[in-house]
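Readers of this paper often ask what the protein records in our data store actually look like. Such a record has a labelled line for the sequence and another for the backbone structure tokens. Nothing more is needed to write down the fold, since each code stands for a local backbone conformation. The record that follows is passed on verbatim for readers who wish to inspect the format.
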Amino acid sequence: MSLLVATQNPGKMREFRALLAPLGVPLLFPPDLGLEITVEEHGTTYAENAALKARAYAQASGRLTLADDSGLEVDALDGAPGLRSARYTVGSDGDRVAALLARLEGVPPEQRTARFRCVVAIVTPQGDLFTAEGVCPGVIATQRAGSGGFGYDPVFYLPEFGVTMAQLPPEVKNRVSHRARAVHAALPLLRQLLHPET
């Protein structure tokens, strides 16, 4: 048995390789199968968007498929950018970080609370759907720090570590991040689906 992970994002691919290694099965990504699918993420929740992606790739490949949808929720912005995190503004990750910092200019530290939220969806070749969620709380820093990670990691400050997510060593990020927590919650189910005889 193998597991198809429905992402083409290099940062996510790197993290999923580490997070799913305990399963001990081959991991495949869309380029490995020559799959080029555009999935309209028109869901109203992370779970709906993750399920849309997982279903599309499971149907196209006939394989057990995992997809995720995640976002940054900033309390001072009423939960924005949320579902629109990857489309918050046109351009690069850096442009989105700049837009976020501009929106939060002048907001005091105690009001910059935020969380990363991730939902992973797993779809079987038969079409059964399962989901798991992970949340990582933090604070939006006033300036970028760190060169690791991707997305909003350089401004997502973790008070218990005293650094941003982009400053964490990968092995620590892969223990505490929202994606790590969602995958960790999904691992028992994935083991059951991949090794039903055990």
About this structure: The helical segments are 10-19, 46-61, 93-103, 170-176, 178-194. The chain has a mean pLDDT of 95.
